[in-house]
Amino acid sequence: MLLMAIVWTVMTPRLLRSVVGLAAVSVILSMIMFYMDSPLAAVFELSVCAGLIPVIFFTTISFTQRVGQEELIERKKIIFRQYVYLPIILAVVAVVMLLSKPVVDFVFPTAPVVQDVRKVLWDDRHLDLLGQIIIILAGALGIVALFKETKK
Amino acid sequence: MPSLLILLPLAVLVIFNLPLGMAMRRLYYWIVATVLVAQGFFVAVTPFFDWKALNDPLAMFFEYKLSIDAFSLIMLFIIALVASVSLQVARYTIEPGRKTEGFINLLLVTVIGMNAIVMANGIFSLYVFVEVVAVSSFILIAMNKSKFAMEGAFKYLILSAVASVMILFAIAILFFISGDTSFSSVQSAAKVQAASAYVKIAMMLLIAGLFIKSGIVPFHGWLPDAYTESQAPVSVLLAGIVTKTVGVYALIRLMYYVFGMSPAAQKILMFAGALSIVVGALAAITQKNFKKMLAYSSVSQMGYIILALGCGTTMAIIGAVFHLLNHAIFKSLLFVNSASVEKSLGTVDMEKMGGLGQKMPVTGFTSVIAFLSTAGIPPLSGFWSKLIIITALWTAGNTGYAALALVSSIITLGYFLSMQSMAFFGQVRNGLEDVKESGMGLAIPQAILAIVTIGIGLLFPVIYNLFLMPLGNILR
Amino acid sequence: MVMSFNLIRTLIGLEILIKVATLFIVLAGHVTGNTALAQALVVTLIVIEVVVMVVAGGLVLCIYRSNRTINANELVNRKG
Questions:
Q1: Is A69's Cβ below 8 Å from some Cβ in B?
Q2: Choosing among B15, B95, B109, B188, which should be mutated to test the A contact, i.e. which has the most A CBs within 10 A?
Q3: C-alpha span between A57 and C62 (Å, rounded)
Q4: Closest CA to A85 of A10, A15, A22
Q5: Boundaries of domain holding C32
Q6: What per-residue confidence (pLDDT) applies to A140?
Q7: Which end of chain C, C or N, has fewer beta carbons within 10 A?
Q8: Which residue has better confidence, B233 or B57?
Q9: Is the pLDDT of residue B325 over 50?
């Protein structure tokens, strides 16, 4: 089901539908995550990717929209040419993976001590936390630096 | 102690972005310069002084998993050096005021990110800070606001993001296998199952992703545009450290320390390295834009490093890291040269240059030194690193590659000399009569870098014992 | 999909790639039983992803301002 949503998002000619498709993909992804014992990640994914990012995209698109009929027609031509390759590639990859399956054997590591509360783990990953703060800072500073000239 | 390298610049960054008075803002530049120089000192002093004996006051509040070994030390030194040079260049090429502040902000973030990269303890932390550096690099490239800069930044963004995705997939597979992301667990897991197909796939993905980020052929598409179109201090920063840290350092660290070198990986690395050497050198010859030529030359030099990495012997790795160090220095010097030329002339088109050596003595002289070092002429630093690499290749039995490296070195030399004579020596062209040297501000960093280049070349035995042998001891 | 000519479409395609990678990490966590670590990684990833997207969007805006187009084919102009 996820695959279908992805394919549709990629191929649809109308940009806004694409963004909606992205949100839909996020929702489905989030549900999958939920099933895999990762409730917190699912929640993050849902809130951020199904909400925040489409907002970003809508803002960007609203500033740059320039819908032209030629665009749609050209798009349909390109779709046919390019995306004929894509299923072929996917099929090849799938075949390769299926063939190599019997060869593959990997040892699962001994299950580590399961931290039942996720928050307990976050004490371990301080460096990543710091990294997140820094990257948010970087993004903010960057955007400011990019758009500063309008204020001057 | 190591966490200070990250927290101190961060504190400076935060403090100086609060609304302060004008006087404080002028201090910003000086304080940042001090911080960077302090980092350089830290590195220089470390072999003689055991920092661990000092109590880390911050350990009570923050416990970060950071580790420094000889390789990280060398990288920290380069980061400090090139970043301070870049800061200096920025002061004299970007108009003062708000724009400079923006640059310094992003510079600090980049330095923080790179420090963290070389001190990181696990693949995922590595990735996080690689992204930090990437984000700040995008903005830095685009700060020029010209059409081409934007295009370069966007190309870099897309390619870098694709590379990040590949690296993420590799991380996921490694997570699969080892249940953790720290270097030691991945290393032990990879040793146990070296033959498994999944490990191989992970390695392929990792190599491919990191090749894109380092600008190795055939993934170097973004590099010429990004280097050329960005402003002068950004080019210095990019060419001098960012590409190296984010791409090459990560490659060396992961391939050599964590994964061990399987024969297949070695072949790929050596082939890609050799390809980069040749393509980079050939492309550089045809360029008319000074900066673009330097960009392709960087691709070529990265090829040397990757080639040596692929060889895999201890001596080769020492050569690779040493060449990394040297290239950071002389390539930065060349870009500062280009900055000073650009400032005085207003152009980097080589066809318009001629006889500059008479008008701009400092630039001319230092650029000669840098070029000679690039081509590997004794007694400059480049000579030693290339010698080590070629010798290592020869003794490991890869005589074909060694010969290739030697030959392209000679070709590079030939080309550089001819370009040099055209632009800097010879007759002064029309319209260039009133060109002057571009001022002390740019002359000082050039002089410093040139002195370091010569110094490393002359003091080679000292450097070898002090910095490079410990490197060899850490390697397996 | 990433090679599309409209820059924003490229970004969307990139987004999807990142999500798939996220999915793999969660999968790995589920299989090895270390769901806590996997979630920590995923959360960090999502933060990074958002920042990168915001910056990318900002870049696209800037490109649009100077070129009035976000069509990749039209944007290719070489300087030699």
A1: no
A2: B109
A3: 14
A4: A10
A5: 7-72
A6: 87
A7: C
A8: B233
A9: yes
CA dist B288 to A104, B293, B350, B429, Å?
52, 7, 5, 16
Split at pLDDT 50, 70, 90, the class of A68 is very low
Q: Which value, in Å, is the radius of gyration of the alpha carbons in chain A?
A: 21
Q: Where are the domains of chain A?
A: 1-66, 116-152
Average per-residue pLDDT for chain A = 64
Asked if the model's pLDDT at residue B350 lies above 50, the reply is: yes
Q: Which residues of chain C are within 8 Å of residue A114 when distances are taken between CB atoms?
A: 33-36
Interchain proximity B175–C25, CB inside 8 Å:
yes
Residue in chain C closest to A7 (alpha carbons) equals C1
ipTM: 0.87
CA pair distance A86, A94, nearest whole angstrom: 12
CB-CB under 8 Å, C51 with B148: no
Closest Cα in chain A, distance from residue B17 (Å)? 9
Domain count, chain C: 1
**Model confidence pLDDT, tens digit, residues B28-74:** 777 777 777 777 777 766 665 555 545 454 444 455 667 777 777 78
- In chain C, what residues touch B176 (CB-CB under 8 Å)? 28, 31-32
pTM over 0.80: yes
Both structure tokens of B409:
């070195």
How far apart are the C-alpha atoms of A7 and A5, rounded to whole Å? 6
Chain centre distance of CA B290 = 19
B169-212, pLDDT tens digit by residue?
A: 988 888 877 767 777 777 777 776 665 667 777 888 888 888 88
**Bridge partners, residue B289, by sequence:** B349
- Kindly compute the dihedral angle of the four CA atoms of residues B181, B179, C31, A47, in this order, to the nearest 10 degrees: -30
- Are B162 and C67 within 8 A, CB to CB? no
C-alpha to C-alpha distance for B266 and B251, rounded to whole angstroms = 12
- Chain B touched by A101 (CB under 8 Å): no
